[in-house]
Amino acid sequence: MATDSGELDYEIDDEVVADTPQALKALTAETRLLILDLLLDRAATTSQLADALDIPKGTVGYHLKVLEKAGLIHIVRTAKVRAMTEKYYGRVGRTIVMGGKVDSTDPMYMIHAALREVRHVEGEALPMFTVRRVRVPESKAVEYAEAMADLAAEFSSEPRAGERVYGMLAGVYPTDAPTFKDDEE
Hints:
two-stranded parallel ribbon, single chain, two-stranded antiparallel ribbon, Arc Repressor Mutant, subunit A, alpha+beta, 4 strands
């Protein structure tokens, strides 16, 4: 459960690195990504997650086992309900950094996932996207990527509130855009 300030009521690392094949594979399933997103709001049981996702408890249970074995979630508390013990799952880290090559047939699956979930409502200020291309040294591109990672971490650490979930997609990437052979006019 979340506190009044929107903070989680269990300890969570700021960052966890997903660098094993098991962890990287766990991050390729959309249902598991949705579970991880929900667990940023609060710890939850299998039943609570199944209700939120509108899928069977058995399916959620399977995905929870995959995430737990991958070291991305853990049981943060239990509660006795009638004769049963309910397990509450929480994330291990607020931000999951992929430390290796993702085992996916789609190397841009994050971009495609973001495009599938984006919603546009006429008259609203969001979504907002922009694309810029500029020739800079690699060290400067890395500097911008680090600044975006910091902004993304700040975005994901916001207290949970409001009626809608917002996503953020950011990246710095090399392109095949043409460039002049030299800087002379």
